[in-house]
Amino acid sequence: MTVDQYFEELSAGLDRLDATAREDIVSYYREYAQEAGLSSYEQLREHFGTPRALCDSLCAELSGTAPLPESGADPGQKIPAAVRSILVMLSGQKRDAGTDPRPGECEMALDAFTGIDLSVITPDVVLQEGDAFAVRYRLPEGERLERAEVVDGVFHFRTAKTRTVLFSLGGGEVILTVPRGTRLQQAEFQVISGDLRLSGLFCGKTVASTVSGDITLCGGTPGQLSARTTSGNLLLREVIASSVHFGTVSGDVRLEDCRAPIADFSSTSGDLSLSGMVCEYCTVETIAGDVEIEGSLGAVKVSATSGDCTLSGSLSGRGGITTVAGDIRVHFAGVGVEAASSLGDITVDGCHCGKTVSRPGKVPLALHSTTGDITVTTG
After folding, report:
1. Entry pTM
2. Strand, helix or coil at 128?
3. Which residues of 38-62 are buried (b: 16+ CB within 10 A; e: fewer)?
4. Which of 59, 131, 209, 328 is the most buried (most CB within 10 A)?
């Protein structure tokens, strides 16, 4: 008897399921066996039970009944979360809940946790406050659940691609709920095309990344916050962080009424807009994106190639802004100005100053552009 024969018997025993679900379940157990080093029929039987016993357990899970244990089988063997999600979606029933879910939606009550490790492909992801730890999810066609469990205080949620889908009616959704006031030690979110929305997050360290999905944080204290996207946008509103590190290729970055002692941003072509920002040390690097910063700043350093830079508010530390072709416009009261533009014009408090200017002030501000114009208001 071979490994292939085991899975052929398993597939035959699941003939009451549709072909797609049967394929997904058998594929899961094949991958599990490979990772666990189960390379013979006997090892598979010892680990999972006979194909017949495993079929009975799966079908009983689907129907909501408990099968009689087979002799020699492990009665404590649990149906993996990845397989259970397939069965729940087939049955259209929600386990451990008092109301019916939408078709294809699953909901799980969770043990308490202080860490999050989440990785999905297509679904939108939402973190919200509620009464208890729970997750509700609906996965799109072509994506299956690999893991959904709390281990050593960390909630692991992971999906995998099952096959290529040319047309999909929806991207699915994962909604994770934590009790109000919960403090997490670390939270990591990886999303490919879905959006990520975090509300009221209270965490020591937060890492978020997407390829094309947007990242939105509203309220809360995410601690050391690191976020990166390729084409998705980044939005923070009324967030207090111990540090902020953002990176994007073409997506825009917007912060509204946020606080962070240290903040650094990098962009290729995406624009950056900070309004009501309170930061002790802020650095920005961009190639073609425009930069707009308004707030209470300590030290600030901005470098752009072709993007325009506009800064205003208050400046208490050293400032430096450099562009190649972008214009520079600043409005800081009482600053000293050292400015130079090789081909552009310089204007300080309404006065045209030629190609270079040096004016003393309480706080030094160095401005340089190759072809861009420089406009400074110090009053």
Report:
1. 0.75
2. strand
3. beebeebbeebbbbebbbbbbbebb
4. 328
